[in-house]
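dumping these here so i dont lose them again. two proteins, back to back, each one seq then structure tokens. dont judge the mess
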Amino acid sequence: MPSRSQTEKKKLHDFCMKIPKVELHAHLNGSISTDTLQKLSARKSSSDEKASDLAKLAKWKKLTENREQRSLEDCFEIFPLVHKLVDDAEAVAIATRDVIQEFAADNVKYLELRSSPKENPSTGLTRRTYIETVLKEIKQSNYESNGILTRFLLSIDRKVPLPVMGEVVKLAEEFHTSSEGLLVGLDLSGDPFTTNVSDIIPLLSRAKNAGLKLALHLAETDDRSAESLMLLQVPPDRIGHGTFIHPAAGGTDEMEELVNRLKIPIECCLTSNLISRTVKSYSEHHFKYWLNKNHPVVLCTDDKGVFSTNLSEEYRIAAETYNLQNDDLWRISNESINYIFADDATKTSLRDEWQICR
């Protein structure tokens, strides 16, 4: 395909920034920017601890200035620091507030944040207070009407013990009822090699029966077809990544047939998958495969802080890689509204807003 001129690239960049967008796959802790991490580090009382954290952040900031120089190992090094800094209710509040504001600045009009509720006995943080803090910040943001509407999904981390997963589901059911529609679903994520998925499925089915929507990470690697098929049979309301579903990508005919028949939307995270090495290049990403089949797909960031991206950048990459025109990008964004975990009134309101912005 012909390359775009610098003028065309500038116009594309501006258009991607301008169009309203929907973000449906954003992990809270992975979306925290370097600026917010520096703010959180400054709260620490130990000067030695601050110096160590700031050195790590300085290295990370330098790496993110050149996206091509970052390795997967570099990205994973930042996660322990994030978890260390977000260890009390105030830190959770700061992180949530900043992440929402940054998505709003990128002209994201509807955001679904997801996070595994953390606890830290030394700071008094419990899973319940973690959830309450995130919901409080979301409610305040929505009330302030700053151009973005936010909802929350609790994440089941596959590395935690099964009883903890059960506690997370119980909390999700409780807050789904009491949060005035702010907590809308469950996410299943984490290392797929840590837990037998057959042990988790009863919890997912229970949550679904309680009215919670399910966004499940599955088919993230090319050797998990059996468990991915089990998860597809729950079934999920959306698929996280789904990199290895269709046979040409290492999946199976049975998986693809099920996804096609149920029209399960797929959350596609281009930069995340490239840096995580689950795809070799943008051009080989499965997003284009499903887009060509007119299957529901949503462009997402995954961990915008860790992978140093934003949703406008993901749209730009998609346009340049797959030769998409402005009308294509607008349609992808507009159709993403169909797949949000919100009521029909919210979807109608968002569609009206998209038409005004067209």
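---- next one ----
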Amino acid sequence: MKLYALLALLLLSGLNSFSQDPDWIVPENKTKDLSPFKFTDENVEAGKKIFEANCTSCHGHPGQGDYNSALNPVPGDPATGKIQNNSDGTLHYKITNGRGAMPAFKNILSSTDIWNVIAYIRSFNEDYAQEVAKKIIEGTFEGKDLKILLQYLKDKEQIQASVSGIKDGAKIPVKNAEVNLFAKRVFGNLPVDEVKRTDEEGYAYFMAPADLPGDSAGYVSFVANLPNEDLYGTVNTDTMLQAGVPTHPVSLRAQRAMWNTIWKAPVWLLIAYFTVVAGVWGFIFYILFQIRNIFLLGKNN
């Protein structure tokens, strides 16, 4: 028995060490990324709200050590060296791409949101001195008021994204700009097709999924953005397009289910429940009946 117990212990130990992720390797070029803007009190406050909504369940409140130690690997307190010793680019990469129990926030938060979270995390480091990225001039659109317009081309089953801006008072297309397209879902955003680049006229085309569920009229909320915020700043749009399959959601209470009212619970569950209840009460009455018999026997004797 001792031999079997020892083997089981070694096996569990091996599995546990196997489940441990190796050190989080971040591409070297990503570790050197810097925020395109200087962190201000407004950035810290915005990052705090995002952090509290998305990060406290695992990392707890910075500086309080109330992170979830049951997770593997342990997330750690953002105010400690475990996280503060990472470069800004490393933090941005990790938050963006996630790993293991930590979700990837690239389809949930914009790059600016993630930099705001980093600004909040750095506010707990008195020795932190921020280095801001140098502006990239080459390839930058020199106009202003960039906008993305979405249109559904039903005959081609494509979603057209038009990117334009204002320069010298005139509206001109933004060429060779990367565009992301997502369909809003209940839990995050669903990527639609691959990242596309705008052509000479500022258009990018995405194939619309044939089976994408929409509302009762087939409308779907699409979100588009320009991922290269270092060049263009934060540019996004949220548009309803009739590019989905009309869907009529069925009420969760329409059919028998575990989460329904008691009279619409599964039949087997009702039978099991009442059988157990009847059995318990039957046993109680049986005990009472036996106690009564004992009492009567004692009285007669």
